[in-house]
Design brief:
single chain; 320 residues; alpha+beta; paralog of FGE (formylglycine-generating enzyme); four-stranded mixed sheet; three-stranded antiparallel sheet; globular
Amino acid sequence: MPPTPGICCAPNAGREDVTSGVDGFKRVHSGATENMVLLDGGTFLMGTDHPEGFPDDGEGPVREVHIDPIYIDKYAVTNSAFTQFVKATNYKTEAEEFGWSFVFWLFLPPYRVRQIQGKGETVMGLEWWCKVEGAYWRHPCGPQSNIKKLADLPVVHISYRDASAYCEWAGKRLPTEAEWECAGRGELEGKIYPWGDDLTPNGRHMCNIWQGKFPSDNTCEDGHAGPAPVFAYEPNTFGLYNMAGNVWEWCHDWWSPDFHVTGPHENPTGPPNGSKRRVMKGGSYLCHDSYCNRYRMGARTSNTPDSSTGNLGFRCVRDV
């Protein structure tokens, strides 16, 4: 099946006919809490009415939402942690099963990009995304790449189903969108980013996003062209790392641009029935304010559960 469009940094794989589903939310209490942070829960202001936002994504209105206490990973799940999961279970990711995943064009030799473009295996309108055979979490840029020196980087090329399988093995689950956003905001109410409203306070880079002209020239002023180690940059006030930029993170919720307006504001888990897409939060190293400034805390996007890319990972939560 040919690649299908998406937003600039979240192309849809279109590898299978994704059907609508049910909520399926379950509390989980059994996983270890090492390298997790206890959030007390409570009420916070979710969403944004920021003028630079994307109203069609359903970022607003700002509303009061309550969540119960949870534990949440300090870091996105790493290559090292995912390796342990695979060794224990012999799990194969969907990218492995399908035989390909999306790789950003600047991570490939120019001749390979030309070959892929010649075969029509880029995403229409988002030609910087290349369908690369043999790309998956162990080989993030294709068969000639590996993760031997990337143990502390977030695992990528992970579909929603892959992330859910890891969580089940670890005795945890994916965060709801409300839990994720509450965690990302830390103790700051109504701010654009986890650290405040200034993207680069006093000239400091606080997250891993694109600098330069997207999608052809990344000046890497923040020190990273691709994923950064999960402990890079300063944590937010809850002690959580990389809640903005670095890699997109899957959330539990089925996607809707308007369900939250009339839906529950007490431990919301998203629409009860699926829209064929799941929510993603946080943005990635490919986000740029000229194109996709979805690294804001109130921003949101979605993708089909079978999709995987070189900038898509996850972190886990556990109920108290």
